[in-house]
Amino acid sequence: MSKNEALEASYQNPLIGHGYDALSWLIYSPLGGRETLRREALDAVGVAAGQRVLELGCGSGGLTRRLVERGARVTSVDWSGPMLRLARTRAPAATFVRSELTAFVPAETFDLVLFAFVLHELEPGERAAALRVARAAIGPGSRLAVVDHAEPARGAVARGVFKLMVGFEPRSMSAWARGGFDDELGAAGFAVETSTSLARGTARVVTARVLVA
Predict the structure, then answer these.
(1) Using one digit for the tens of pLDDT, what is the confidence trace for 11-49?
(2) Quick count: other Cβ atoms within 10 Å of Cβ 178?
(3) Is the dihedral of CA 91, 56, 31, 43 positive or negative?
């Protein structure tokens, strides 16, 4: 079985959603907590009631639920059937679509397109394809937001947690987190507007708009 086949098989494991939830809770507990990270990320993005949000890579729906609670109209996309089943129980008001991210074709534009802890799992070519999907879904005046891992500049606990994550995340995560998001977002036609550190520097959220030629 190839690495990609193994990864695909893990996405369809019936327990993947619960395993992901347990692991994320464990990782962020010494860094202020997973719920604090989610709240601060959405605060930084400025999610508001009535916004049309496309969430590319919703996973088990933890962030989806917070988006719905803030009054957003959410469409969430993920390739994992087990993840989507769990997400539906957490955010029944959202619309869910099962699709591989780079194959998703938006039928409309959105006020906000969000990637949360998903782009680091993709190789550079796949990330570029996913960002093209995001760009196609962004209307005039709309924004992109990316929440993902980052390498902390200081703090023994934070740096220790980052090293732990590098050990079990896909190999693509290390270069993405250490290199930052800005260059790849720029190559995809986005201009970064804001960047906010989260979870003691082990994550960050950036917002960006489409570059106008």
Answers:
(1) 566 556 677 788 889 999 999 999 999 999 999 999 999
(2) 12
(3) negative
d(Cα 202, Cα 165) in Å, to the nearest integer? 10
Residue 168 token pair: 């079990």
Residue 4 has pLDDT above 50, yes or no: no
Residue-by-residue DSSP string for 48-99? -TT-EEEEE--TTSHHHHHHHHTT-EEEEEES-HHHHHHHHHH-TTSEEEE-
SS3 33: coil
What is the helix, strand, coil percentage profile of the chain, to 5? 50, 25, 25
Confidence of residue 93 (pLDDT cuts 50, 70, 90): very high
Average pLDDT, the chain: 91
Q: What are 40's two structure tokens?
A: 């601060």
Q: Measure Cα distances from 79 to 4, 103, 123 in Å.
A: 14, 10, 16
The structure's pTM equals 0.91
